[in-house]
Each structure stands twice: as structure tokens, then as C-alpha cells.
Specification:
- An 8-stranded mixed β-sheet has the order 1-2-4-3-5-6-7-8, sandwiched between helices.
- It has about 300 residues and is an alpha/beta fold.
- It is globular.
- The protein is built from 14 helices and 8 strands.
- The protein has a single domain, classed as Alpha/Beta hydrolase fold, catalytic domain (Rossmann fold, 3-Layer(aba) Sandwich).
- Strand 5, helix 4 and strand 6 form a beta-alpha-beta unit.
Length: about 300
């Protein structure tokens, strides 16, 4: 099936509206970070779930997966560099962004199945996975369950290996408040929580997330999206060392030393459990290393991908 494209000039129209509303400079905008990169934003039917996807480049496929309550804009500082060598797919995951929001709890097997359905829909047999936070959890689970579909795995401040009540409460409370109240300050606070330097939570990112948070279907499904912050649900989805030990694909673990949702020992434990994995710690970095220190991350990622071409 041929899917409709959204032309770049339509995206440019959105960009100009945002510039006018937020009085930002061109250097600070999401879409100007993709200047010079041919891309399209489209909707893919992934097993019956309409899935928003930004696609760019050609070559071995790399799929970028965001974190809890996130969206594909988490990777706009990375797609241009990667699209020079790879076929990039940044998607809004199940129940997130502008992807469909079916009415059931979004546990990790559901995310895994949605990822696989997306891969099937666009004809990807095996992909490199870049997973940030929840996206890393989903990527790791998929690499455990169907390793032949995963060429390599990058875990960027990946979640899912511990069940810390304080962190879970922080995620649940900050997200629910920002969604339930139409106050952009709450969305801004939620975005700044991710970053070591609040400047990296740009006003455009805040505007994009605020719009997403206040879609009627997003509000209606917030309990489904936050189910992994419930202790009982989380414990039946958590990845324990014996699970991580089953990961056989090349794996890179990247962690921010100022990550508000997980301390460095979690990264060390991941690295120790996954045989042959690499671990890189970013100083002065929070929960979005690919965004906060994009130039360093892009170089690191491209070196890793070059060392581990798909079979």
C-alpha cells in the first residue's frame, strides 16, 4: 500500500506558525535542525494502529523510540546526521504522540508487538534500534524475544530494569498534572525535568508536547499510558539481569550522570548483564543524551553502527 506523504512545505508552515507564536530564532527550532535532509512525515497502519512516522535517508534501517509520554521530536537533533548513511524511522509509539491510542493498558509486550507490526508494515526485516527511556525498555524486550529482528541495540537512559517507587511517583505525578491541567507551565516543568540544563527544554518542544498532552484521546488514555508506573504492573514487565543476559545483539548503553530517573549504578548493571555491551557515561547530562549532547551522541552512535552492520 502506498501511504500519503506530508510535503515538507506543510511542515514549514507549521514551523512558521510556531516561530510567530513563540518568538524563537531559527537556530532553536526543531524543523530547521533537519534543514538539508530530505524527509517525510506519514502515517503507517501498524497492525491496525495508525502510527506517525518521520522517515529520512536510505540504507540499513534505524528505528528511534522515545520515552514515556514522549514523541518522535525527541530525535530531531539526530536524524540529519544518521540519514546520511541510514534509513531512519522515528515513530510515535503506541498510545503516544499522534499515533493511535487503543483502550487497553500499554504494557511492554503491547509496545513490542506494535514495533514489530510497524516493521512489517514498512517492510523492515531487521533494524537497528535506538531506544531512549521507555524506548530502550521496548527495544531490549524485543531483542530478547525476537533477536532476528534486531540488528543492534542502543539503550539511552533505558528504563525497565528497576522499580523505584520515588521515580515512578515523579513520572506519574508530573505527567498527570501536565495532562490534566491546561497550564503550559506544567508541561514546561515536565520537559525541564528531563534535562540537566533547562535551556535544552526548548520552548518549541514545550509547545509540541503541550499540544499532544491536550488531545482528547491522549487525556482519555493517560491511565493506559502510565500503567507501568503502577508497582504491580511494572514488576511483571521489569527486565531482570537474567533477562538482559539473553540479549545477544551488539548493544551500546549511554547514560547521563545527572539522569533524574535513574542513577549510574543502573547503567553499570545493564552493561554487566549484557555480554559484550559498551557503556558510555555523559557528564552534565540528564535523561535525553541524544538531545542534550547531540553532536557527541551522533558521533558515538554512527561509530557503533558502523562497527555492527546488519547481517
Amino acid at each position: 500500500m502506498t501511504l500519503p506523504e506530508e510535503p515538507n512545505d506543510a511542515v514549514g508552515g507549521i514551523e512558521m506558525t510556531l516561530l510567530e507564536e513563540t518568538d524563537m530564532t531559527l537556530a532553536e527550532t526543531i524543523w530547521t535542525e533537519l534543514t538539508g535532509t530530505e524527509f517525510r512525515i506519514t502515517t503507517v497502519d501498524a497492525g491496525g494502529v495508525p502510527t506517525r512516522s518521520l522517515q529520512a535517508g536510505s540504507g540499513e534501517p534505524v528505528i528511534f523510540l522515545h520515552g514515556t509520554s514522549g514523541h518522535l521530536e525527541a530525535f530531531t537533533r539526530n536524524l540529519g546526521a544518521h540519514a546520511d548513511r541510514y534509513a531512519c524511522h522515528a515513530i510515535d509509539m503506541l498510545g503516544h504522540g499522534y499515533t493511535g491510542k487503543p483502550d487497553y493498558p500499554y504494557e511492554i509486550p503491547r509496545y513490542r508487538d506494535h514495533l514489530l507490526a510497524y516493521m512489517d508494515a514498512v517492510g523492515i526485516e531487521s533494524a537497528h534500534i535506538v531506544g531512549e527511556s521507555l524506548g530502550g525498555w521496548v527495544g531490549a524486550r524485543t531483542a530478547i524475544d525476537v533477536p532476528d529482528r534486531i540488528a543492534s541495540l542502543q539503550l539511552l537512559c533505558a528504563g525497565g530494569t528497576v522499580a523505584n517507587p520515588q521515580v515512578m511517583e515523579r513520572i506519574r505525578t508530573s505527567t498527570r498534572e501536565a495532562v490534566s491541567r491546561d497550564d503550559v507551565e506544567l508541561t514546561r516543568a515536565r520537559m525541564r525535568l528531563l534535562m540537566a540544563d533547562p535551556v535544552d527544554a526548548t520552548e518549541e518542544l514545550v509547545a509540541v508536547r503541550h499540544a499532544i498532552y491536550h488531545q482528547p484521546d491522549f487525556v482519555e488514555n493517560i491511565d493506559n499510558l502510565l500503567c507501568l508506573q503502577n508497582m504491580e504492573v511494572r514488576l511483571r514487565n521489569v527486565l531482570r539481569p537474567e533477562h538482559l543476559a539473553q540479549i545477544t545483539v551488539p548493544t551500546l548503553v549511554v547514560w547521563g550522570r545527572n539522569n533524574p530517573f535513574g542513577e549510574v549504578p543502573e547503567a553499570n548493571a545493564m552493561h554487566e548483564a549484557i555480554a559484550g555491551s559498551e557503556l558510555v557515561l555523559f557528564d552534565e547530562c540528564g535523561h535525553w543524551p541524544q538531545h542534550e549532547q547531540a553532536a557527541r551522541y551522533n558521533e558515538l552512535s554512527l561509530e557503533f553502527l558502523a562497527k555492527h552492520p546488519a547481517p
